[in-house]
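Lab channel / #folding
Pinned by the channel admin:
"Please post every new chain as: sequence first, then the structure tokens as a reply. Keep commentary short and put observations after the output so the thread stays searchable."

First post following the new format, from NK:
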Amino acid sequence: MNEPRSFSFEEFLRERNNAKSMEAGDRALFRTAADKEWQRLKDRVRQITEGKMLGPDLFEWSPYPASYPDFLKLKDVALSFEAGTVVGDALPKYRIGFCRRPLRSGEMWADREPIPAERWWLTVESDGGVLYWEIRESRLRLTTEKFADYAAMQLVEYQQRYLEAVKAKYPWAGI
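Reply from TO:
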């Protein structure tokens, strides 16, 4: 049991409320910083791929309206940036998806995806004033600049696996 303190309940309550308020303020500041870093990640991916090509295929940033407005398209695949909504004071949910490119309005695929989509749940962490992205499934942890490079490279790898699966599925098509 704790020893009685020399101040009143009002002072005790004020101290506790101040501590809770400071904690909530810190969470709000971190949420804001995380959202800014999420935007910086998307901007960095766009910047490093802008005008680049993989063979005849151009990297295109959100070239048309789609269900996920932020995506990097490479021929028939895409790297989609998906952020979840915040409930209460929880951190936003960040996810990157490698999958078929999002469909345009009125479009539909004639068949199922030749390979499964890959999704990475991301967390953002602060260490010594530097923000890092971590992929929960692999525990890979990188700064925004390095993570942008890594994600763009993984899109190329995914596109190659996708193309190989399409060729295997439709060998007569001459793809």
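NK: The helical segments are 9-49, 144-169.
TO: also worth noting, Residues 9-49 form the longest helix (41 residues).
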